[in-house]
Amino acid sequence: MSFDQISNNGLVLLGCGKMGSAMLSGWLEQGLSASSVWVQDPFPSDWVKAQGVHINEGLPSAPAIVLIAVKPQMMSDALPVLAAMGNGDTLFVSVAAGVTIANYEDILGAETPIIRAMPNTPAAVSKGITAIIGNTHSTGAQLDLAETLLAAVGQVVRLESESQMDAVTGVSGSGPAYVFHMIEALAAAGEAQGLAPELAMQLAKATVAGAGVLAETADETPSQLRVNVTSPNGTTQAGLEVLMNDNSGLRPLMAETVKAASDRSRELSNG
User: Fold this and answer.
1) How many domains does the chain have?
2) What pLDDT digit, counting tens, does each position of 41-70 carry?
3) Does residue 168 fall inside a structural domain?
4) Is 147 found in the same domain as 65?
């Protein structure tokens, strides 16, 4: 990973909560000099203070990148400070949910290179997946640089259009919460069959986590992996007949779930 451009011109991290801290940790581990990073955050954690980065100091005039990791509702206060860096060579990368490229262009200037990114919470353990899309002023090299930075917390995928970001929000952005609830539901179902609560939860967590790793690392598709563990007329088949019911099973429920989240994302973006 090369951070030469950032080392020469600097990186500004606007907001350093859980997501910002996860990214900063990844960058420092992969060789980015702490002296190249300027963090702007009203309440920096003790961990951030101990990293040797510049905290709430005067910013470089033309940093290579400004990475925006503040909550959307804080954007109106935080961004005007950086407006002077717009319409130039500084690349703005946003991981703030629901804030469109057009919103940034209004504040920073229409010729500002802007990349919008949607990470998810497993980024905190470097197991995230982030979707990115750039505006017409962001170059291929800048997209590569953004991908390099975001790869510090997991996988990165590129979208064909910004409109796809709402579906990404519905699938991977909100998806960890669906999986956490599945763990809750699986554990509760185990309790209902006579297991102690702690044991049921341990079994549910390990099963979902293990299946996830297997799905990601195996050569077979998830469909084939499912078939592999389903003996004819066995216990798994009995369970799947309920879960895969065309009307009341998981597939229609998940379609409804992702649609609701995607629709809400569209509403927020247009609001």
Assistant:
1) 2
2) 989 999 999 999 999 999 998 899 999 998
3) no
4) yes
